[in-house]
């Protein structure tokens, strides 16, 4: 091999090495092997099943004793992306309020469970004849807190539902939580001032919602 041939071969080897180092030839770039791993979760709307959903309430009298019971869900819907709730409305039928603390009542005038229901339905409390429903409209969900607008007696205030569990399956959504509101904020006040003072202001609502895909 003469000197000219040797120089030509040497130059070819250098060029091949340079192309390889710079990603030439058949080299595959990193971007071409990347696969998208982020997948958007579609929003799903679930229809609340009133027959399977439960709303329980509890109020206290000066911390000495209290009343508790249930109230029916009229209808509602919940929209979620996976287990993240993004919206929804729950309507409660205030005409169905019923006490369960049977030990607190006697079969005598003014002491029956039906007497309590009648009183809670008056203007002293929920004024059911004029406002037969209450609603909770969901606005946001962060961690275990679901924030929304609670409307009682036509008055709307922002409240927070503290979730204890949420489960989403192929069949639907189940969520449980507790919401505590101050009745004074909604004009749920006994007109007898001294009697109203012995009632605890906070009312606890425990919610168990079961909903199916719409």
UniProtKB/TrEMBL annotation:
Domain of life of the native organism: Bacteria
Family matches, as SMART domains: YceI
Pfam families xrefs: YceI (PF04264)
Every Lipid/polyisoprenoid-binding YceI-like domain range: 45-212
Keywords: Signal
Secretion signal, residue range per the UniProt entry: 1-27
Protein name: YceI family protein
Protein species of origin: Imperialibacter roseus
